[in-house]
Structures are given as structure tokens and as C-alpha cells.
Write a structure and sequence with these properties.
mainly alpha; Growth Hormone, Chain: A; Jelly Rolls; 4-stranded antiparallel β-sheet; 8 strands; ARM-type_fold
Length: 1055
């Protein structure tokens, strides 16, 4: 990505050509090599093609051509099978070289046949030789290109690189006009021989500059179980199956059109010289037009038509031509007019085929894994295209008919079948794209072959390995609980505690009679408290359980057994007096741990009658008890508790716990949340309302979230859109989200132009654009298949080039063009000028006269992060900056500390700006955008410690990390100093993610001033700003990786 590019720079002529052809600067050499390579292959194959047809047209073409087609098909199938064998046993780079050498040898063989053979058999052999050379060079060229280019590159560039053979074939066609004798044909073959040798040299250059191989990896997970035929013959891909059948049908039709073109020329011009000359001119015109169309139009047509319509254009063109021919039979008798019509059909069909269909058809292979991609291409070109050729030859030979007769109906029927096949091909292409960008692993209930898995997993229950047994239990629990029920008594006596635990959990989900003896044994004797509790719970919820049988469990001295039994009994009968009395006794116990257990049970069982008891515990001085009461309040239908929760939704100490509690409420909470939304403009309140609504899956909740998504505050919009991810799509809301999508696209264009014209804002605006991309994906998830959009979201950010390309290709086939172009320029590594040019072409010229800085100050924190606004303010003269800050304060109810006008004059505390700079200087946050760091600074607390004073001791519970603003800190283990830190260093960072005992003591060496980030505050922030979590995880991962590298590179001591 270019930063601060001068907008006035003008592209050079070569850059304009590259832009017109869709070639990026870094791709120019690669495209050039492939273009020249294909040009040389085209020269060689067309010259042999001319030689073969020149001889065939001399020898009774009505019968020799069909025979040649059939013989060629048989030979091509044989060679194709040989190629497929070596494709699995040789590296691709080695195979490609050997294929070209084979083409050179075949050219020599054809030359020998030309010299010594003058019969029909020799002519047929020469044609078969041409077809073999064509097949081998085609497999070699597209095999190499398939692994060098990804899906998006292939869509842009296959038309360009494949156009290399068009001028070659046009030149060869013109040379054909000069061919009048076998001696002339031999000269053409000598030129072809040289062309293939030159192509071999270019291939070596390509191999040296690219990694030409097809890596073998694990198969992708799929929810569609392929049939045995597809699994065995087509690599398990329905896409390859439909592509092969489509290609066979179209190859047959193409052969028939070519045959009728040649035969009609032969009938019109009886002199051999005239025949060759006429054919040459038509071929030259065809290839010339195809070359121009490929270079100048194919990419643009593909962009406008899309993949599906581009595929269907060829059969529809052929259908229209053949239907017209049927009509002309009854009205036109002129031989000349019919010849012109046949020439027109041939020319249009070949131009559409070569300029549009072939490049698009080859793109369809790209979402497949590389080995599967090569296998599919070889199968299509090496078996099914020859089958189509043989089918055409057989039909022509058997029917003895041309398209001038009723036989045209046969070919029209085949083309109708091709349309049907291509429609299904496109559907399978989208499925493959979805699999390519989707999750790499399936859930247990999404196994592609559950019937196959059943037999194996049943036997695993008897395994001596606990992991195997656990896997089997999980699968049977999800797919065949009846079978698992029979195994429960045995599994409950298993020696492994994890197996017993998993079995107890499965029993809890069954509506079957439970094995009382085994459960009672576990409840009273098992070493694991959680297992005793679960067993007592299962015993307590039995319908036929006797009171005398349960009383010992309810009053048991073991707290685990007691709470399990109470839960089971009250789940079955919430008003059971004995169990409820025991529960109340626990709740009023002086031990806070007992109170927490009681509150957890009240929450789990939704015991509304005990709401007053929960209200009492909300005033507890014990933090854990208070949070337990809050969680219980979220599960009870009580107006007083609801009011309490809503009043404390943004409380600094318990706000996060309140938010989690409200998530457990049902639709009855929505009116209160709506009233709160209408009564406030506080951003944090609105964000937490969105979070709560995201866990209540009702139409009323969705309607409230839709309203929040339409607010001008984009932070609130993002929270609402994130909450809507859990809701199914609602077609009635499409208009709303299309409006939001349009707004986001327009904002993207505004920010991109701003980043181009104001280099100082480039980095911070890039962050704003990255947040915009996430909002845009959330909007798309409301308009299209959610799982597909989620896969695309993950794919565009994936480090693997292939997966990024597949994600973009899926989006290109799914979403509106303007939205796709916006996403493409935002996630693609393109020059900034080029990004703006692409968007302006799609959205129209950008002509807003307001500067980007004025736009930022006008929109404020409703659109931009505090850091972006701060960067603009700090670029202004002090007086102007103060006026701008005051204007922001007057327009918006609250501002981030970073933007408060008095912040710059505060001397008692470290300013928010200095805190951001301090965090940015630490190695932990060095790769984190300042925009994200600015959201961390409000939760940082200042501490001062005198020299020699402890900051924390070894064994203390770690609840936060520290960043040193001034002074020095030593990390000690007893009297041993482990490390010493100074300004900008940090320590205790793992406590942000996990509460564990400190592994060492931290002591101030000098007077120190620290900034502390507590875990609870950080969790609050992560819940509202997911980018903070991603950033900290990325930073910690990088630090661990670097430490591992240092350890790996450390020299080992001599033994």
C-alpha cells in the first residue's frame, strides 16, 4: 500500500496498458512469460493443425474427417490416461518439461508421416498427431498456470495469458494460404518444431521464477457426502463431475460446427487451393477477432456478466445459431448464403468460446485444492473433451448428415443439455468457494458421513483409551442416544473420571429411565465432587423417587451431594418444601461460599418465589456474593430486580455482571430496554442495550437492534450489528440494511480520498477503514447467507493467498458490484491512487469540497475514533485547536478524555495523550494502532511507589499488568534479581488474560510512577471493543514466538 502518493502523478503508457488489461505491476513479468509461452505453443499447434487439415481435405473429407475425429479421440484418451498417471508420480515442474519434449517428438513423427504418407490413413494419423500435441500442450500450459495464479488472478489474467496463442494462430492461418503441396506442409512443421523448443526455454524461465508445484494437504471438510461414482472417478468433487460432462457436450457441438464449416467450404470451392485459402482467411479473421476480444473485452464482459452468464453465453449463442439454421432451411436455397451463415456461426462460436468461455471455465477449477484442481483439469481435457470429440465423430459418421438437415435437432438437444449442466456447474462452483473459505473443521453434528462413523464409534466404546471412548460418547449423544442408553450402566462404572463425567452429562439430556444403583454409587463414593453432585442431581429429578430415598441426599453433609439433590428435586417440583427449606438455609448461611451456591441454584432453577432473598443479597459487602445475586436477578421475573439491573447497567464496578445477567432475560425485558434507549444518548448505555438484545432472540429484540443500527453513532451501530449476527436474516429488513450498506460505501470513498490527499492522516484513516470493513461485513450478513459471509470475512484476512482470493471471488458472485468493489479495494494491497480510481469508476467521481480534517471535526466521535480526532486537533494552531475542542464539547454530550479541553493543562495526572504514546512505545503494543490504544487509556489507573517498596509479592493473586511511566522496577525471586525494567517497560501482562498467582516479587528500585490495567476493566473493554482483544492476543503471541525463537537459537552448552 502506498502512503502519501501525489495525486497529480500521471501513469506511464505501460502502466495505462497494464491497467486496461487488468495487470498489476508485480504481475507484469509473470504475465509476459505466460503470454510468450502460449504464443509459441499456439504457433506450433496451429501449423500442425493447418498441415493436418490441408491433407485431410484432399482425401474425401466427408468420411475422413469423422474417422479422424474418432481416431483422435481414442488416441487422446490413451495419452490423457498416461498423463494422469505421471501427474500423480512426478513433480509438476518435471512433468511440464517432459510433456513439451513429448510434443517436440510428436512433431517429428507427424513430419515423417507427411513425408512418407499420402493415403487417407496417413491423413487420419496426422490429424490424430495434431490432437495429441494440442492435448499435451494444453495440459502443460494450464497445469502450470493453475498453480501459479489464484482464483482472483486467474479471473483477471487467464483471458490475457490465453490470448497469446490467438495472434499465433492468426499468423498460422495466413500461412495456410501459401500451402499447396506436401513440401510446404513440411516447412510449417519445421517452424512448429522450433516454436516448441522456444516454448520449452520459456517454461524453464517460468519455473525458475515461480514455485511451480501442487502441495498435497488434508482434504477440506464438507457437509455433502459425495456419491460413490463421484468419490471414485471425480476426486470427490461434484464440480469436476458437472464440468466434465459440460465440456464433453460442448466439445461435441464445437466439432460438429467445425466439420460443417469445412464441408460447406469444400462443397462451395472445388479447387483445393481455393478451399485452403478461404479456410485460412476465415481462421485468420476468427483468431484476430478472438485476440482483440480476449485482450480488450473479456475481463470487462466477465465483470459485467458475472461467471454464470459468461458460461451460458456460449451454448445460448450456439442454440440461437442452430435454431436460425433450422428456420433458414425452409426459406434459403442459395449455397453461397448458407456458406456465409455457416462461416458466421463458426466465427461467432469460436470467438465467444476462446475469448469468454474458455478463460471462465478454467477459473472454475481454482477453488479446488491444487492436487484436485490438476486432476480435474486433466480429467476434463484428457478424457471428457476427447469423449465429446469422439461422440461428434460417431454421430456424424453414423447419421451421415450435416446441420442443413433435421440432424440439427440432435445438436440443439445437446446444447439444451449443456445449458442445464452449466447451471449446475455454477452452483457447485459456489459450493466449492464456500467450502474453500469456510471452517476447516465441522462440528460433531455436521459429520459428512454419520452412517459410516456409527459402526466405528460403537466399537470405540470398548476401547482401552479414554479419549476414544469420550469421542464415541459425544457422537452417540448427538446422533444415536438410544444406542448410548444401552451402554450407560457400563460406562458409569468406567475407571476414567472423564468418561463417567461425559456419561452423566449425556444421561442428563436423556428422557430415559436412569440406572439408580450406579448413580447412587457415584453420588456416595466417587472421588470427584462434580461427579457426586451430578449423580445426586440425576437421582433427585426422578419422577418415581421416594422422599425417604432422597432425604439423605438433601441433608447430606457433603455440600456437593446436597446441592445436586436440591437442584434435581426442585427442578422436578419447584415447591418441594424440604428442598426449598434446605436451599433457603444455604442462602442465609454466614459462609459466603454457601450463599453463592444457593444463588446459583436459584438462578439455574428460575425460582421467582425467592426474589426477595436475592434482593437482600444485592446489598452484600462480599463482591462474589453480590455478583452471584446479580446473576440470579437476571433469571427471575421480578420488576424490582429488573429496575435494579437497568439502573446499574453502566456501573463501573458491576456493569459487566449486570449486562451478563440481563442477557438471561426474555422478551419481557425489551419494553424496559426500549424505554431506557429513548431516555438516554449515552453511548455505553446504548452499546450495552445492544449487547443484551443480542442474547434475546425475539422479533421485538431485533426491531430494537434495527433502530440502534440506524443511529448516526457508528460505535453504537457496530454494537447493534454485532448483536444481530446471532439472528436469522429477515427479508423484510433488507431495505434498511441496503441503505446502511450504501452509507458505508459512500463513507469508504470519502475516507479513501482523504487518506490520499492528507498523508498525515493516512495511518489513522486506514484504521477507520478497517473498522468500516467489519461493519460492512456485518451488514452483508443481514442480507445474504450468514455462514457464507462469515467465511468470507475470515477469508479476506487470512494469510494464505488462495483463501483470500476464494473469499473475494465468493463475494463477487454474491453481493452488489459497488459493495464488492469497495471491499476489494479496502482489503487488496493496491496503490492508494488505484483504489480511489476503482471506486470513482464504480461510484462516480468524488467532488466534495470539504477537507477531510473539517469532515472529521464535524462528525466527531459519532463516526471517528478519539485518536483520529486528536491527530487533527494537534495539527491545528493552539487557538484553533481550543476552539475546535470547545465546539466538539458543545455539540456532543460527552467526549473521550483524550479530547477534553482541560486535559492538556492537567499536571496532576498523566494525560491521555501521553498514555497512548507510552503504550505505543512498549513492545507489547508496538504493533497496535493508536486508535485502539486510546480506548485502553481510560481504564488505566495511576500508582506511585517509593524506592524499596514492594509493588506485589510472589504468590499474590495477579489481577492486572503494569506499565512504567517513570522510575525502575526489579523482578525478584527471593534474593535473586530476575529482571530490571525502566520507562516504557511492562510486567505482569499475563494477568490480563488469566488470574494466577504471581510467580515473582516486583519491587521499586527508585520512586516509580506506574499505570495499572486491571483484568476486570480490560474484560469490559474487550467485550465492547473486540479489536482490543485481537490486538492483545496478537501482541502476546508475537512476544511468545520471539521468545521461542531466542531459545531455539541459543547455543547449547558443551556436554
Amino acid at each position: 500500500m502506498l502512503v502519501g502518493v501525489d495525486a497529480t502523478d500521471q501513469p506511464t503508457s505501460s502502466q495505462r496498458w497494464q491497467r486496461m488489461l487488468g495487470i498489476r505491476p508485480e504481475e507484469s513479468r509473470t504475465v509476459g512469460l505466460f503470454f510468450i509461452h502460449n504464443f509459441l505453443l499456439g504457433i506450433g499447434t496451429i501449423l500442425i493443425y493447418v498441415a493436418a487439415n490441408a491433407i485431410l481435405l484432399e482425401n474425401n473429407p466427408e468420411t475422413s474427417l469423422p474417422v479422424a475425429y474418432i481416431a483422435s479421440a481414442v488416441a487422446m484418451i490413451g495419452v490423457g490416461r498416461v498423463y494422469a498417471y505421471f501427474e500423480h508420480h512426478l513433480a509438476l515442474r518435471s512433468l511440464a518439461v517432459r510433456v513439451l519434449l513429448a510434443a517436440v517428438v510428436m512433431t517429428v513423427v507427424v513430419g515423417i508421416l507427411v513425408v512418407i504418407g499420402h493415403s487417407v490413413a496417413a491423413a487420419v494419423a496426422i490429424m490424430a498427431g495434431y490432437r495429441l500435441i494440442y492435448l499435451l500442450t494444453n495440459l502443460e500450459f494450464w497445469g502450470v498456470s493453475a498453480v501459479v495464479f489464484d482464483t482472483r488472478q486467474s479471473k483477471r489474467l487467464f483471458g490475457v495469458i490465453s490470448s497469446g496463442d490467438m495472434p499465433a494462430k492468426a499468423i498460422g492461418a495466413i500461412l495456410a494460404a501459401l500451402v499447396h503441396a506436401h513440401a510446404d506442409v513440411l516447412r510449417l512443421l519445421l517452424v512448429a518444431f522450433g516454436a516448441f523448443l522456444a516454448a520449452l526455454y520459456v517454461l524453464q524461465l517460468t519455473i525458475q521464477s515461480h514455485d511451480v508445484h501442487a502441495p498435497h494437504g488434508a482434504d477440506r471438510s464438507t457437509r455433502r457426502e459425495p456419491s460413490k461414482l463421484i468419490g471414485k472417478r471425480f476426486g470427490g468433487s461434484e464440480l469436476i463431475f458437472y464440468m466434465c460432462l459440460s465440456l464433453a457436450v460442448l466439445a461435441a457441438v464445437a466439432t460438429e460446427i467445425e466439420y460443417n464449416f469445412f464441408i460447406n467450404v469444400k462443397h462451395r470451392f472445388h479447387d483445393q487451393t481455393d478451399v485452403i485459402r478461404y479456410v485460412s482467411y476465415v481462421l485468420a479473421l476468427t483468431y484476430g477477432v478472438a485476440m482483440l476480444a480476449k485482450l480488450l473485452l473479456s475481463r470487462q464482459v466477465l465483470d459485467q456478466f458475472g461467471v454464470q452468464r459468461s458460461l451460458l453465453t456460449l451454448p445460448w449463442v450456439a442454440l440461437a445459431g442452430l435454431a436460425g439454421l433450422v428456420v433458414m432451411r425452409y426459406f434459403v436455397a442459395s449455397e453461397t448464403v448458407m456458406l456465409i451463415y455457416f462461416c458466421g456461426i463458426y466465427l461467432v462460436f469460436e470467438v465467444v468460446r476462446r475469448a469468454l468461455f474458455d478463460p471462465v471455465f478454467l477459473v472454475l477449477f481454482q477453488p479446488l485444492l491444487p492436487p484436485q484442481r490438476l486432476k480435474g483439469h486433466t480429467l476434463a481435457k484428457g478424457l471428457y473433451e476427447p469423449l465429446g470429440l469422439g461422440l461428434a465423430g460417431s454421430l456424424i459418421f453414423l447419421l451421415h448428415t450435416t446441420l442443413e438437415s433435421g440432424g440439427a435437432l440432435v445438436w440443439i438437444a445437446l446444447l439444451a443439455g449443456a445449458v442445464w449442466l452449466l447451471r449446475h456447474t455454477y452452483k457447485r462452483y459456489l459450493h466449492e468457494l464456500n467450502d474453500a473459505i469456510g471452517r476447516r473443521f465441522l462440528e460433531r453434528d455436521q459429520l459428512a458421513m454419520p452412517t459410516v462413523a456409527k459402526t466405528s464409534l460403537l466399537s470405540q466404546l470398548q476401547s482401552s483409551r479414554p479419549d476414544d471412548v469420550l469421542t464415541a460418547i459425544s457422537w452417540l449423544d448427538a446422533h444415536n442416544s438410544a444406542e448410548l442408553t444401552q451402554q450407560v450402566p457400563t460406562l458409569l462404572e468406567h475407571a476414567n473420571a472423564s468418561v463417567r463425567r461425559r456419561t452423566l452429562n449425556a444421561v442428563g439430556r436423556m428422557n430415559q429411565k436412569v440406572p439408580v444403583r450406579q448413580l447412587m454409587h457415584i453420588a456416595l463414593t466417587d472421588d470427584e465432587p462434580s461427579l457426586r453432585q451430578q449423580a445426586a442431581y440425576l437421582l433427585g429429578r426422578r419422577i418415581n423417587a421416594e422422599t425417604a430415598e432422597l432425604a439423605p441426599l438433601i441433608h447430606h453433609t457433603d455440600l456437593s451431594i446436597r446441592q445436586g439433590a436440591i437442584k434435581g428435586v426442585l427442578e422436578l417440583n419447584p415447591h418441594d418444601a424440604v428442598a426449598q427449606a434446605e436451599l433457603v438455609q444455604l442462602a442465609k448461611d454466614a459462609n459466603p461460599a454457601h450463599q453463592q451456591i444457593a444463588l446459583n441454584l436459584i438462578a439455574a432453577l428460575h425460582l421467582d418465589d425467592l426474589a426477595p432473598l436475592v434482593s437482600e443479597r444485592l446489598t452484600s459487602s462480599n463482591t462474589d456474593v453480590k455478583k452471584g445475586a446479580i446473576a440470579a436477578a437476571g433469571q427471575l421475573a421480578n420488576a424490582k430486580l429488573t429496575t435494579y439491573l437497568l439502573q446499574h447497567l453502566t456501573d463501573r464496578a458491576i456493569g459487566r455482571a449486570v449486562t451478563q445477567a440481563l442477557k438471561g432475560r426474555g422478551s419481557e425485558t425489551i419494553p424496559a430496554l426500549r424505554a431506557l434507549q429513548n431516555a438516554t444518548k449515552d453511548r455505553l448505555t446504548l452499546e450495552r442495550i445492544a449487547t443484551v438484545c443480542g442474547a434475546i432472540y425475539t422479533p421485538e429484540s431485533r426491531h430494537l437492534l434495527n433502530g440502534l443500527a440506524q443511529l448516526p453513532d457508528l460505535v453504537v451501530r457496530r454494537a447493534a450489528l454485532r448483536a444481530l449476527r446471532r439472528f436469522p436474516n429477515e427479508p423484510a429488513d433488507d431495505a434498511l440494511f441496503r441503505t446502511l450498506m450504501h452509507e458505508e460505501v459512500q463513507l469508504a470513498q470519502r475516507l479513501l480520498h482523504g487518506s490520499l490527499t492528507d498523508a498525515d492522516l493516512t495511518d489513522t484513516l486506514d484504521y477507520e477503514l478497517s473498522v468500516l470493513v467489519q461493519r460492512l461485513f456485518d451488514i452483508l450478513a443481514q442480507l445474504y447467507d450468514t455462514e457464507t459471509i462469515t467465511g468470507a470475512r475470515l477469508g479476506v484476512g487470512h494469510p494464505a493467498r488462495e483463501r483470500r482470493a476464494n473469499a473475494l471471488e465468493m463475494l463477487d458472485n454474491l453481493i452488489p458490484r459497488a459493495t464488492y468493489q469497495t471491499l476489494q479495494v479496502l482489503v487488496d494491497d493496491l496503490p492508494r491512487q488505484e483504489k480511489n480510481r476503482i471506486l470513482d469508476v464504480e461510484l462516480g467521481p468524488f467532488d466534495d469540497t470539504e477537507t477531510i480534517r473539517a469532515f472529521i471535526l464535524r462528525k466527531g466521535e459519532q463516526v471517528f475514533s478519539a485518536w483520529t480526532i486528536n491527530v487533527v486537533l494537534r495539527s491545528l494552531p493552539p487557538a484553533d485547536a481550543l476552539m475546535a475542542q470547545q465546539a466538539l464539547e458543545s455539540r456532543f454530550a460527552s467526549l473521550s478524555p483524550l479530547l477534553m479541553a482541560h486535559a492538556a493543562h492537567s499536571t496532576d495526572q498523566i494525560s491521555a495523550y501521553d498514555r497512548v504514546l507510552l503504550l505505543a512505545q512498549t513492545s507489547l503494543f508496538s504493533q497496535t494502532p493508536e486508535n485502539v490504544l486510546a480506548s485502553i487509556t481510560p481504564i488505566m489507573k495511576e500508582e506511585e511507589h517509593p524506592a524499596g517498596g514492594p509493588i506485589f509479592h510472589k504468590g499474590d493473586l495477579g489481577t492486572g499488568m503494569y506499565v512504567i511511566y517513570t522510575g525502575e522496577v526489579a523482578i525478584l525471586d527471593g534474593d535473586t534479581e530476575l529482571a530490571r525494567f525502566g520507562r516504557g517497560d511492562f510486567f505482569g501482562e499475563l494477568a490480563l488474560l488469566d488470574t494466577e498467582s504471581r510467580s515473582a516479587t516486583a519491587e521499586a528500585i527508585t520512586d516509580v510512577r506506574l499505570l495499572r490495567i486491571d483484568q476486570d476493566d480490560f474484560y469490559d473493554l474487550m467485550e465492547e471493543r473486540s479489536e482490543v482483544l485481537r490486538s492483545i492476543v496478537r501482541s502476546l503471541s508475537g512476544r511468545i514466538r520471539r521468545q521461542n525463537e531466542l531459545l531455539a537459537n541459543r547455543p547449547t552448552s558443551a556436554q
